[in-house]
Amino acid sequence: MSLLSIEHVTKRYRRGRLERVAVRDISLDIEPGELVAVWGARFSGRSTLLRLAAGIEAPEEGSVSFEGRDLVRSRNRVLGTQIGYCHTSFSSAQRCPVVEHVAAGLLAQRVSPKQARRRGQELLLRVGAERCAWLECHELDGAEIARVAIASALVTTPALIVIDEPTSGVDELARDPLLGLLRSIANEGTAVLMSASDAQGLSGVDRAYTIDNGELQLQSTQAHVVPLRRAELGAHRR
Description:
This protein has about 240 residues and is an alpha/beta fold. The chain has a domain at about 5-90 and about 160-235: P-loop containing nucleotide triphosphate hydrolases (Rossmann fold), CATH 3.40.50.300. The protein contains seven helices and ten strands.
């Protein structure tokens, strides 16, 4: 049984009489500890696929299962706990310190503020964003936003994190270290499903897929994906 199983899923969006098929008959399995990337242009269906995988949206055809259970029926129990979806944007009105933003997932589970804040600080250290703890979210740069989003998703110790374009808005020199962080998280047993808009975003993944016009195709497996340099990966293991 796979951790996440997407079977013959189709998703359409309608606007008046117009209909667009965003995802077309897609099947995909993800195992614990895998780093899987979906590569495609804007409007290719990649973001829709990730939202379906996280349980944020429901398929019109086919099924999505997480640990053998139908994700549509169980998403209120699973999303935000066993599945962490990384939000890489913050509301301009959000003025709380970053550590409290990261701790929010635990506060929702009635963990004490002191314990939640301590866990938030631990996760910020884990992702290399400990210096951001007492900044406000609007003060972060692109790479810091991505790292904080990853910390927020990890705070409940999920089995899977889903992140849409983690390198979007990130300076080129900061991209490989960020991808190295995701690789190290997968190496520790948490599956990672991500999207990418360019080939650089495929570094170090176990499997890379392309998506075009809502159709998914396997592009490469680990043996054919350019790996991250050992120094880049090692720098993000703590």
